[in-house]
Amino acid sequence: MGFDFLNDRPARPRGRVRVFRRGRPAWLLCGAAAAAVLVGGCGDGGDGGEGAATSPPAATATGSPRTEQPGSPGGTGATGNLTGDRAERQALVSASKVGYGQAVDDAVAEVDGGKLVDIELDRGRGSDPVWEAKVAAPDGTVHEVTLDAVSGDVLRSQEEPGQSDDDRKEVTDLITRAEVSPDEAGKTATGRKKGGRVIGAELDHHDGREDHDGQDGHDGQEGRGGGNPVWKVEVVTPGDWNLTTYDIDAVSGDVLSESVDRD
What we know:
Blueprint: H1 33-39, H2 84-95, H3 100-108, E1 115-123, E2 129-136, E3 142-148, E4 154-159, H4 165-177, H5 182-192, E5 197-205, E6 218-220, E7 229-236, E8 243-249, E9 255-261
């Protein structure tokens, strides 16, 4: 899916916790192998962490994706009743104080005229929650921005290495064609999943061939749609802590597919 270049992304550091199930778009991966060796990875910034952090007291969840304060609602049982992935989602979301909408705004503000192309809630150095974002400048140059998901502080903001003129041209085409903002895509997703918390979104091409077949703990519907760019929005549901991925047409705003990870 997505672009065909920049495919040699090195493996993530052992111990790095991942709550996402989706693949990353090819144009967000590392550049040429030589560039990967020189910079020691693509957008990783050494943010490894061993193990999962213990959840602090729950914060109250309210409002839209822009105003939400992630936290554990008083609904479900203890973390011990959840699978590893769901327990980690609960811990990560509960530890985060900066919601998706605010993280998007803060990341985009780091790049003049920038537009978000990717963001995810993840574990940073020392297992602290961070928002890792990719923001494209008007000329298609992608910048990596890392935000502390508790304080909101910008931990890193730099141009992604290894980008060619062709890379920038493809990114420019993608962000120019997208008419639905990341905030609108997040609201569409949480409108389908009441009480959900957006933990990630990526903008990519959609070829209409995605098939969420319900295997490996995933239930879903077959993708549809044409060649418009698509937002892939990931939503965690406090309560069962399942992860639902929505493919949303970035031109029309239509929901193209829905897939649930119950692991």
